[in-house]
Amino acid sequence: MKRKGLIILLWVSLATSLFFFLFFTDEKSFRSFMMTLLISTMYSFLLGFGNGAINEFLNKKFPWLEATRTRTILSVISIILGNFILVYFCNYMNFVVIQKVATTEDFFSKKYGTTNWFMINIALLISAFLHAKGFMDELRKTSKKEVVEQKLIAKSANAQFESLKNQLDPHFLFNSLNVLSSLIDENPHQAQKFTASMSKIYRYVLEQKDKDLVTVEDEIDFAKVYCELLKTRFEDSVDFIFDVRNESVKKFVVPLSLQLLLENCIKHNFATSSRPLQIKIFSENDTLCIENNLQVREQIKESAGIGLANIVQRYSLLTKRNVFIEKSEDFFKVRLPILNTKPNTINVKSIDQDKVYERAQKRVKEIKSFYANLISYCVVIPFLIIINLIVSSKNIWFYFPMLGWGIGVIAHGLSVFAIGKNWEDRKIREILEKQNQEKL
């Protein structure tokens, strides 16, 4: 149990002992108060730790929002059995061991039956309230998680937009058109090949713009076409080496990452026939590496690093694995993680946002209504029990409202959490996941 829970139990023990000492204890002495405090502490900590252990166990095995119906049934069964055992144990320690006002035979006779039943009901009311509070805490955490997921979705969309702006680099297009213009007069056949390569490149860009991941094989094939175009443009000034293992080609990388990195190599390094720029693309330990010899070009304007930052951002939205950058005096190297499977993403754009908000608002009202009912039950029933025992302890009538209202509270809870319409939300998510997987 956390420190906050221990402090709460201490305060409950102190408040309970003061209440019983002031209103139900005839002997007002320090010894009597300490005895009352000891008994209250025993009840508070045993019942608190017992119910806390049950709740933590059920949270691990049957989380509220993943198995709501199963958790509700198990919570009802566990708190009834658990509190029955704990209350009988605490009452036995109180009346037989500590105060010694009853023998073991007396304790298990009808004489203490009403007392035990009264204490069990109080414990059940408190436990039901704590379990309901646990559900609300879990619901609040999940709501925060969903908000974070929506922010990530928005961030992903923005990253994809930025990616497109970087992929369709106007400088690359301008330089390519200049090369094409000169080739048309000098070498028409080579100009046709150059145009075909440009067509393949931009067709690939348009095909992959909506995808989160593509196979290494597709990305390498695209990179080879792109390198042919660069080779036509720079001739012997640039050399390309591909060395990717066969076991890596069916795995996945972020689309168009090679194009951005190859463009960076050309942009930031000078290349001449006497000192060619050597670019190597190879696989190494579940990473796709792009390495070039460092021949830094003097630049009037410092690079903003948008292309590389874009790749890092897109990877961060898909995996916890990082993009690694190595730089020395002789080479510059970027390691892209190769992913074994595609992430399971959900396309939420197809959901009508107004309907989602309306359904969520209705759901919140139902939950608030149930907890208002539960809190009223937890406040009113103990008050009726105390009045009944003080006014006419021989004529026990509090069972009728306690049982009748209790059944109503349980039915209300089942209708909200167990047999409600939450299956619709799960079904919508399943359909969206299936459609998204088919699209990928």
UniProtKB/TrEMBL annotation:
Enzyme class of the recorded protein, top EC level: transferase
Keyword line: Kinase, Membrane, Transferase, Transmembrane, Transmembrane helix
Transmembrane segments: 7-24, 30-52, 73-97, 117-136, 370-390, 396-419
Organism taxonomic ancestry: Bacteria, Pseudomonadati, Bacteroidota, Flavobacteriia, Flavobacteriales
GO cellular component: a single term: membrane
GO molecular function: phosphorelay sensor kinase activity
A Pfam family matched in the record: 2TM
Domain (Signal transduction histidine kinase internal region) ranges: 159-237
2TM domain mapped to chain residues: 358-432
Gene name of the encoded protein: ypdA_2
Signal peptide coordinates: none
Name of this chain's protein: Sensor histidine kinase YpdA
Coiled coil location: none
Enzyme Commission number: 2.7.13.3
